[in-house]
User: Fold these one by one.
Assistant:
Number 1:
Amino acid sequence: MPTPNFFVLIGNALLQLAGGDPSVFLFWISLLVVTLWLFKEIKKTITDDKSLQVSRIDHKLEIYGRLECNILLYLRLKNEDSQKLIYEKLGESYSALSKPIYDKLFESLKSSDDDKLEECVKDIHEEVLNLKNRREQIYPMIYSNGVFESFYYYMNIIERIFLPIIFTYFAFLFIFIIIAVVYVIIHLPTISDKATSLISLFSGFLLLLLVLKALSELFNRDYKNIRWREVGPILIFSIINIVLIGHLYYQILVFILLFGYQLLIKKISFNRK
């Protein structure tokens, strides 16, 4: 009697777990394949995003490093050749320089003020330290005397495993909620009921995106990227619109208020620039 194939045995065992129904068995197998694929894609996206962030930081560090060295060289020698090097490096540094540092550096060179130039060196040095700290947070190294650095190192390992799992879970949760809500909306009796349900669904979608964005920034420890002045009202209005399901006119009013608030914030930010 031939020995049963290992994969056949596994398949039969899984089929029995599915109650002997081939359609249920195929559903669970398909769900497993989709889950693994989604997990792989999310993990790849997170890894690529981190690599891109590190690449940008390294590029900025390289530019800041050359510029800082040339300014220090000029402050030491104070001749035309070293000053010419600063102008050349400044021209190569536009893509990396922050607006405050660029403005201060430009004014100091324009007025030939060495005191301001020394302040620029301090600002550049501080910016370099901030960039290096951000890089360490993205890809932390383990240090013998650094408890917090070691903590971030191990947290990074845990993050690589669990963050894709969390995002995969939320993706499936969102898909199932969409399917369930759309099914319910289709069977609602009036257009008004369907409209208010769609608004609540859209608000829930915004709320989920904000949660995922917040999780991503918290795991990356890049808290400054969370613009609470813009995100906060969206979060509050989304929750209000979900609570106000069945009250179409109130939901529309909330969206108008949110839209007006966002326009006001954009106008204030533009005027400050």
Number 2:
Amino acid sequence: MLRGKITSWLRQHKDGLIIALSLVIVFITFIKPLADSDLMWHLRIGQDILTNRSIPMQDFLSFSMSGYSYVFHSWGAEVFLYLSYSLLGMWGVTLLYALVATISVLFIGLSVRLFTNNSFAWLLLPLFSGYILAVSGLRTQLFTFTLLCFLVHILLNKKHSPLTDHSQTLLDFVRKLLTLFVLFMIWVNLHGGFVVGLLVLGVFLSTDVIVSNHKLMSIGRAIIVMVTSLIATLINPYTYRSLEQAFAMGTNTSALQSNGDWLPIQASKIYQWQPDFVFVLAVSALLYILVLRKRDKYVKSFITATLFAGLLFISKRYMIALAITLLPLAITELYNSIKQNFSKLFDKGLILFWVIFALIICSTVVTNIGNTINNNAYILNFGSQAVLTRLPAGVFEYMEQNDVPDRMLNEYDWGGYLEWIFPQNKYFIDGRMDNFFTNGESFLVTFGTIIHTQGDWEKRFNSYNFNAVLLKPGREIVSILRDLPEWRVVYEDADAILILRDED
């Protein structure tokens, strides 16, 4: 009797259990070590916002550009990061990112469900967790990834999309507009990637006009939708400046040429064809091929994906939009192919196969939790072995035991960490400042000119009156300072060198 009730309950709730199992696996998969070199300045900004109960309008972390009028475009995400940190330390940040990533996969799954009602398709989602992680990373842009997943779900869903249904009532259209308005209003206050959402929306609207048999109606609807979404992005502490900042970031030639996050995919000398880079390109190509085979079925999504595939040759940042556009459709086609060619897998007797499959994945990803524990212990104890972005643990320990110089030329990737662990001082540069501009020139140019001793480097170097230099030992300027009598090496190892200027 009891066995029969359990069997009946399992059959009745089969779909929900399969979906829940898939999402639990995904959540565990995303419990990863934090390797974002920008994490600490994000935490510092979130801390400042909550402490002062105000959103900063000017830079307060650097001495080189102190008072610079800056749009803190991720202020909302930074508040969430600091709240999670204040509750559970680095584990809180880890779990927050895992939750946000899982929500993004939930939206992808809901998009897949628009094309197939079989819940077994959800079991394919964990297989793409590694790809999603490689594309988005555990960093603030994950908020954009998740909201973009939601936007694509809206645009693919005929019940919620303002695009395809020409028979919809005015009330329905207004309701759908309101959804987009709220989405972009939230997005602009969470992360600067909202502009990618506007781009995706614009492409979908354009393709809707192209394929529509009601051109005038489609054009009018497209204009209303786009203008409404743009207005929503003005509802933030910086109003129109958020759009200006997003445009400046997207067209920042210095970042596009030297920042690893912004480089084009053909920059093989920089990437050196690392495994994760090859993996992302290979999976993206396979996803594109799956959708290409059914391009007549997915016209708007295919055009959108093709556009973003082309934009990868400008910046790899567009990989996020490409992946999100392709994933729901490619997973649908992959599921249909498996079902067609291996239909026996879906017989009742082979549910055990899926259970074993899920257990294998769980056992694999659970082993990663140990790495996460070690990593979260390291971050506040100056360790560096457990992360992809190495931090100079030894020199930080040295500075903790000695005075921290107050006008120090520091490495770009180390600035945020310095701002977090030694908040009493301001620093020369951190991960935000490639988007600080003077007369149209990125501050990254000043940094690069000085450390590589190019052009007028000496004039720029002297203008900041540095009393210390904390850089990687191989920097060109380090070789010069070693030979100057007024500069003295006080610490050096394989990762970093600290040189002080004698005041006498």
